[in-house]
Amino acid sequence: MSLRWPNCLNVRDLGGLSTSDGCRIRAGALIRSDNLTRLTEAGVQAMRDASVSRIIDVRTPPECEGDRSPFAADPVYRNMPLYNADDRYDPTQSIDQQYVAMLDLHPELFAAAVGAIADAPIGGVVVHCHAGKDRAGNVVALALRLAGVPADSVAADYAVLDDRMRDHFDAQLVLINDPTERSQLAESFTARPETMLVALRHLDDRYGGVEPYLRHGGLNDNQVNALRARLIERRT
Prior knowledge:
By secondary structure, this protein is an alpha/beta fold.
């Protein structure tokens, strides 16, 4: 469900997604977002009104320093980047390939981010990056799969972008004159269900699934159980 937190462009409550055993994700428990630095005072208040107990900002430290979160000094805030400054980046890779490379490179960072969802105090958890699509999208996808949401549903939800975010992407592409650079940027702006399915299938093939992948990264039994208890609403 899309949320209106002025002036964020891509905020979604993951509540209501069905799990494979007939349950659903609890409303307000997990929210994905684009950069919270876009928030107006009204947006900051809207987020506080949502009873958020933890914000997980997966941007890099230089991003956070140059574009400081309005919650940076708040106890609810955690900066948990998913890659290091010296990690290799290949702009010629497809977004599918970039996701696979990112997941393989740092399972410990993804496990830590998912663990921070599990360990959060009572209340909602917001996971965000810059656009709320790639880095935040992968962390959210891992959490949803661990909670039992089928891969097809996770991929379909990943592909949902607010029209305001699409307009923002289009406006950025217009500014790029070099056709190669524009093509690479256009690829990075895509949100195809198949992209997420490729990443999830890779985790199945290489690690035996999302849970073994996260355990390989350091997620423990208590965190697995806590995440499921936090996210899953049993039907009555």
